[in-house]
Design brief:
This protein has a single domain, classed as 3-Layer(aba) Sandwich (Rossmann fold). Helix 1 packs across helix 7 and helix 3 runs parallel beside helix 5. The model has no long low-confidence stretch (mean pLDDT 94). It is globular and about 55 Å long. By secondary structure, it is α/β, with parallel strands linked by helices. The termini are far apart. Strands 3-2-1-4-5-6-7 form a seven-stranded parallel beta sheet, with helices on both faces. Helices cover 47% and strands 14% of the residues.
Length: 271
């Protein structure tokens, strides 16, 4: 990607949190930025054009991309940030709830990616940055389904990158740890709660809230996205923040049994 002319960026889930910080960071770096939200945004976002899009709807995604292309004629960067969380025992979610989670976090990414690829291939240039998580690298008790979506994004992104390099397109992962956003306030809850998980679920909720309070600012993740978006020779993945880098390192080099014991201890589970 030509660093002197950053180009046109499209950021999903840009109304708040990481998406909003990313849109602003890209704008400040010189990109012409289009952000999306599922519902119309009343507030004005200086320098960022906000459009509505439901990433679970093919027609909505197609309409969004057509709008951006009608305005600019090109799309140089797609940041797939839109996503939702789910906290609870894996057994507590119905298959329908699991499918709904995957429809946003995985198939939403696929829909958006497929929608911009024809344009990027014609341009012979483009960058796709997918927001993963350290939970795409490690086990996540009581977030098994959410973690599964991020593991899926890891495999999809790395494989797709190999397919697209010959077209001048790169696919890169950004992996945050806990980030100070309203993520925990918007977590979905299991649709068939079981008493047997009440205590552990409540304990995990408390751990999550504390971790987010002590987490990185969204701007830390946004800077990692900018780095992933503009590097002339991008790395496959970018850990966003000190804790994310530590977790990535430990997962790669610490023996499995030791990592397992440490993870259970940190999550308040019997070792």
């Amino acid at each position: 990607m030509d660093k002197t002319i950053p180009g046109v960026a499209l950021v999903t889930g840009a109304s708040s949190g990481i998406g909003c910080a990313t849109a602003n960071t890209l704008r400040n770096a010189g990109f012409r930025v289009f952000g999306t939200s599922r519902r119309a945004v009343l507030e004005k976002f200086d320098g960022v054009t906000m459009l509505t899009c439901d990433v679970t709807d093919d027609a909505s995604v197609s309409k969004l991309v057509d709008e951006v292309l009608a305005e600019t004629g090109r799309i140089d960067l797609l940041v797939n940030n839109a996503g939702i969380g789910l906290l609870g025992g894996a057994e507590e979610s119905s298959t329908a709830q699991a499918q709904a989670l995957f429809d946003v976090n995985v198939f939403g990414v696929i829909r958006m990616t497929n929608a911009v690829l024809p344009t990027m291939r014609r341009q012979r240039n483009g960058r796709i940055v997918n927001l993963s998580s350290v939970l795409g690298l490690i086990p996540a008790p009581y977030s098994a389904l959410y973690s599964s979506t991020k593991h899926a994004i890891e495999g999809y992104s790395e494989s797709l990158d190999h397919e697209l390099r010959s077209f001048g397109i790169r696919v890169v992962l950004v992996e945050p740890a806990y980030t100070r956003t309203s993520f925990e306030e918007n977590l979905a809850r299991p649709d068939r709660l079981l008493d047997v998980y009440d205590a552990a679920r409540a304990a995990m909720d408390a751990i999550l809230r504390k971790a987010i309070e002590q987490g990185d600012a969204p701007e830390v993740v946004a800077r990692a996205v900018l780095q992933a978006a503009t590097a002339s020779a991008p790395k496959r993945r970018y850990a966003a923040g000190k804790r994310a880098r530590q977790i990535s390192f430990l997962r790669r080099f610490v023996p499995e049994s030791a990592f397992d014991k440490s993870l259970r201890k940190q999550n308040g589970l019997p070792v």
